[in-house]
Design brief:
By secondary structure, the chain is α+β, with helices and mostly antiparallel strands. It is built from 28 helices and 24 strands. It folds into three domains: about 230 residues, no CATH class; about 210 residues, no CATH class; about 90 residues, Butyryl-CoA Dehydrogenase, subunit A, domain 3 (Up-down Bundle). The strands form ten sheets. A five-stranded antiparallel beta sheet has the order 3-4-5-8-9. It has a three-stranded mixed beta sheet with strand order 1-7-6. Its EC number is 1.8.99.-.
Length: about 675
């Protein structure tokens, strides 16, 4: 079966890619002795610790804590102990430790250069109070919390937070068969050569993707060709490791060819997808690159930060004895997923909650990039934190950047935080097995933006569309798929909702821009979210109106909105580019702005005439009532701020009504006589 699958892949155009595998690692040659990266080596060689003297673990303590695990993995993980020794690894291992994650990601080294003495600083992660490397921990598990907090427990239990880490046998969506082919693709949840009995858990849900953590608690960034990991047979191959629903279900070879008609360089064969490619349509290379870079990353370095799990091992001896034995690890798991204690602290209030719970979402949802060339922006006003932008994956905002984007918004400056809108317990309001997300919201846009809500309620076509459909489009990528990310075309790897809120009405300004001097090709470097003149992020018209996303329910259930690749609307409502959308918006906004401006001028004129015109009490009363009504409409249109976009016909009618009030008031005033007004000093 594996040979047949490979022949099919070659038929799809992978022969050239496979032929170059020796560039990365020669067959039948043992791997060199593995080493951690230079960042980690420096910390390990000369650590600045606080735990030995203060009993409190800080950043470098966390990095040093991981050393013993790496020594163990280099000696015992089959990639090095078996396959590596026999020259059966296709790909070059790249070791990713806590040092490289905390002090390398997010341009942390550039941020550190701005600190006194170039002090090493992290710019991206906020760690949980406890790690899987803490022995013993005081976690009691969500079931214990649920004994007293039944409502919160029931809400949490059906959310995706509770399902993000699952053991084999907990996958009803595939009848617990992790090798079942999905959505008509060649791929299953687990990649070739990886079976349920050699993994600790799967990561992810049917909404977007699946990954796995192997029995040594190493991120599953590889597959096995012509053999099985459990038998030590075949060859370990970098990449081809992650099932991606978007590729399997929607971005089929047929859909890719359809897209290519509008985007000539869009790939249509697996061999054209670059580092993200694989040997199976639906299975991608994430973390690793196909037959190239083999990311070797312990779960303690990355996975446990957000896809959390905790053990009840009493000491490290028990822990190391269990590594490589998935059943033993599963047996000792006390908590998994984003459970109660990940936010409230181990044991919660039972042992004293030390967390400030105004928001703890930032731990996973505020991934940042320090952008050094933005330090001196005029709107930054010398504040170094203003140079933090949302982390990107290739040319799209990364998953987990909801909080980073919120930080870039005016809403943040006004005090809005994650828990202002979100219920942290019931994070998923719909079935967690669904392909789309409907978060449970405790406060929505209409609760604050009452004027806008009133206008939208009177819209012709958009009255049933929620605010988030346009103001919070799906823009974030959970992958790193350079080949398919087209930010100028608002697709095709968008699986999470933007948290910038502002829509930039402009024919040219883009939400995403590459670094200085870079072209707009998707493989350019330094991509970041653009800012307006006040330093706030925004989404452009293409993302707002014509994005392509199979995970965004507002698109999926909205006849594809105006996407050139999903829309079911009439041809005239399918937009090919941002300039076209801008032209349509101007058809709404220009007449409203012109009518509004005339009303503002008429209102000002009438108010001045009231001061100098002799009127009977009845005339004055009637004129003032008319002017007040017109003023209310003028304020409503101005406060709405969309200039007809929220509800064009209704807004136009309101502007015309105000105009009629002011014309009538003018007529009444004209019936009176003018009086001289003495100048006052």
């Amino acid at each position: 079966m594996l040979r047949e699958t490979r022949k099919t892949a070659i038929g799809l155009g992978l022969a050239a890619a496979m032929a170059t595998s020796c560039v990365y690692a020669a067959d039948d040659q043992p791997l060199p002795t593995p080493k951690v990266n230079e960042i980690t080596q420096k910390v390990w060689a000369n650590p600045d610790l606080t735990e030995p003297t203060k009993g409190i673990r800080t950043l470098q303590d966390y990095i040093v804590q991981e050393k013993e695990l790496w020594d163990f993995l280099f000696q015992n993980h089959p990639i090095f102990a078996t396959y590596g020794k026999d020259g059966r690894v296709i790909g070059t291992p790249v070791i990713s430790t806590r040092g490289s994650e905390y002090l390398g990601e997010g341009n942390a080294q550039k941020y550190s250069a701005h600190q006194d003495g170039n002090r090493p600083m992290a710019s991206q992660y906020r760690l949980g109070q406890r790690s899987i490397l803490d022995f013993p921990n005081k976690f009691v598990g969500p079931e214990k919390c649920g004994e007293c907090h039944a409502i919160q427990y029931e809400q949490w239990k059906r959310s995706r937070h509770a399902k993000t880490v699952r053991f084999p046998g907990e996958h009803p969506e595939v009848d617990n068969d992790l090798k079942k082919k999905l959505y008509g693709s060649e791929a299953s949840i687990l990649p070739d050569g990886i079976t349920a009995d050699v993994i600790y858990a799967t990561i992810g849900t049917p909404r977007t993707k699946y990954g796995y953590i192997d029995g040594w608690l190493v991120r599953g960034s590889y597959h096995v060709r012509d053999g099985l990991l459990k038998d030590g047979t075949g060859k370990v191959v970098a990449g081809g490791n992650q099932f991606s629903r978007g590729w399997a279900e929607w971005l089929t070879p047929e859909k890719a060819k359809e897209i290519q008609k509008l985007i000539p360089d869009f790939p249509t064969e697996l061999s054209q997808f670059g580092p993200s490619a694989s040997h199976q349509w639906g299975m991608t290379s994430y973390g690793s690159t196909y037959e190239g870079k083999l990311l070797f990353q312990a779960a303690s370095s990355y996975c446990e930060v957000c896809h959390a799990f905790k053990f009840d091992f009493k000491d490290k001896k028990e822990f190391f004895a269990a590594l490589g034995n998935p059943k033993e690890l599963q047996k000792h798991t006390i908590s998994r997923g984003i459970a109660c204690e990940e936010c409230h602290g181990e044991g919660g209030h039972l042992v004293g909650n030390t967390n400030n719970m105004s928001t703890n979402c930032d731990r996973c949802h505020q991934r940042l990039n320090f952008i050094e060339d933005e330090v001196d922006r005029p709107d930054a006003k010398g504040k170094l934190e203003k140079a933090f932008n949302a982390k990107t994956k290739s040319s799209c905002p990364s998953c987990g950047t909801e909080g980073a984007q919120l930080f870039m918004s005016k809403h943040y400056e006004k005090g809005m935080r994650c828990v202002t809108c979100h219920d942290p317990h019931e994070v998923t309001s719909n079935d967690w097995t669904s392909g789309v997300t409907r978060p449970a919201i405790r406060k929505n846009c209409r609760d604050c933006h009452t004027t806008q809500a009133q206008m939208v309620a009177n819209a012709d076509t958009h009255s049933k569309v929620d605010c988030i459909a346009c103001h919070m489009p799906f823009t974030m990528s959970c992958e790193n798929f350079t080949a398919i990310q087209r930010p100028d075309m608002a697709g095709f790897d968008a699986v999470r909702r933007s948290h910038l809120f502002k829509i930039m009405v402009d024919p040219d300004k883009k939400m995403m821009n590459p670094g200085p001097g870079q072209s707009r090709a998707s493989n350019s470097k330094g991509w970041r979210i653009s800012r307006d003149e006040e330093g706030h992020g925004y989404v452009d018209l293409m993302w707002s109106c014509a994005r392509t996303s199979i995970a965004d329910f507002t698109v999926v259930e909205g006849k594809g909105c105006h996407s050139p690749f999903q829309s079911e609307l009439d041809q005239g409502l399918i937009y090919q580019d941002q300039k076209e959308i801008y032209g349509e918006v101007m058809k709404w906004q220009n007449p409203i702005k012109e009518g509004h401006q005339k009303n503002v001028e008429a209102l000002t004129r009438n108010n001045k005439l009231l001061e100098v015109t002799k009127l009977t009490p009845e005339q004055r009363t009637e004129a003032m009532l008319l002017i007040d009504k017109a003023g209310e409409i003028i304020k409503q249109v101005q406060d709405d701020g969309s200039w007809g976009v929220h509800a064009f016909n209704y807004t136009k009618q309101r502007v015309e009504t105000a105009q009629a009030y002011l014309t009538k008031a003018q007529s009444i005033i004209d019936q009176g006589g003018y009086k001289a007004v003495k100048a006052t000093k």
